[in-house]
């Protein structure tokens, strides 16, 4: 009997859980886990957490302090369930402020240390703006590993690799969303999926040029996108799609391999080139801005929840 697709995927790709749900992490036993403001909000709304959240909110100096305390507490719990990295995001409000991102990232690492979780276990997630990439470059120099998120363009991927970041998270499904909105009748299945094509291009570029930065596809809309990227360094997958893969059978073909990588010299992007390429890419510009706004929307909802709990 053929192995399930999730088991086969694990043989060629590191599987990461895209969730803050501890029960889902226990069930699927991923190597790493990623969180973001939306997932932290979902975890924080669980009734079993309310009493602890109220305690954190009352003890915190302000809402920023409370937000980071909640994120690190949930991340610390996750770290006990996975052997690898836990990704924790810097506030999206700081996406265009390099110095503030640096200060917040260092603070998060210190908080994890007080929970007994070392920096080698944490990836600090930062939006792949020019300012965020510059902050990540400095953090990497300090030994703090980073995960550059909200990544939609080849220009972002090039700048991240030039900066020596540990890992990038190209958003497959959100790229597909944009193209579907522009061309509702088009066939974007399988290899035609523009999100899949984007990750493939980045992966081949990194492998061909010897970059150490890890490519971790994210934000999947269906299992087909995941299967089309089998062989990618890492894939971060929601519990629903992990379950679908675990229940499916059939032969899984490796789709990405270092042997297929492109070669050729490319000069590092400077700020003007980065901004020009982003300006020319309407999809990447719109989805980056939308992603920052969406994360901030969920962060504000979490702030409101913690603010209410502080008054109790």
UniProtKB/TrEMBL annotation:
Active-site residues annotated for this sequence: 125
Top-level taxon of origin: Bacteria
Gene3D superfamilies: Aldolase class I
Biological pathway: Carbohydrate degradation; pentose phosphate pathway; D-glyceraldehyde 3-phosphate and beta-D-fructose 6-phosphate from D-ribose 5-phosphate and D-xylulose 5-phosphate (non-oxidative stage): step 2/3
Annotated PROSITE patterns: TRANSALDOLASE_1, TRANSALDOLASE_2
EC number: 2.2.1.2
Keyword Transferase included in the entry's annotation: yes
Catalytic activity reported: D-sedoheptulose 7-phosphate + D-glyceraldehyde 3-phosphate = D-erythrose 4-phosphate + beta-D-fructose 6-phosphate
InterPro entries noted in UniProt: Aldolase_TIM (IPR013785), TAL/FSA (IPR001585), Transaldolase_1 (IPR004730), Transaldolase_AS (IPR018225)
Membership in a protein family: Belongs to the transaldolase family. Type 1 subfamily.
Stated role: Transaldolase is important for the balance of metabolites in the pentose-phosphate pathway.
Protein name per its UniProtKB record: Transaldolase
Lineage: Bacteria, Pseudomonadati, Pseudomonadota, Gammaproteobacteria, Oceanospirillales
